Amino acid sequence: MATESQQIAQRIPGEKSSLPTLALIAGWLIPGAGHLVVRKPIRAALLFVSILGMFVVGLSLQGKVYSFGTDSIIDKLCFVAQLGLGVLFGIAKGAGWGASSAVNTMADYGGKFLIAGGLLNVIAAVDALSLANGRKAS
Known about the structure:
It comes from Granulicella cerasi. The chain is mostly helical. It has one domain (19-133). 66% of the residues lie in helices and 0% in strands. It is built from seven helices and no strands. It has helices spanning 4-9, 19-29, 33-37, 41-60, 73-83, 87-95, 105-133. α4 packs antiparallel against α7 and α5 (73-83) packs across α7. The radius of gyration is 17 Å and the shape is elongated. The two termini are 16 Å apart.
């Protein structure tokens, strides 16, 4: 009997499925949700706890939450990386959490935690996409 990922990989080539798109978007919006879509609950829980932990630590260290409207290319790249946090980034921006600038060394580390959490979430969403497409076997 074929596993679920093998069944996904054996689909008719012309057949379109919304599962990969759903896994990618859900995984980006909510950390770990893409792995829930492809029925990997333990991996989803580990990703959720890890990314949420990085987010909370980053904010507790008064990390900078970047905006796109600056002239610095580094700030724009940091904004894109933090945008990878999905809904968490939207909540932080909407609630006014995080520092507007890094005022001390700890705040700089906090900003790096937020950036790393966003990049990890993007990697996790792409991993969920690969699982849903059948390109990766668990």
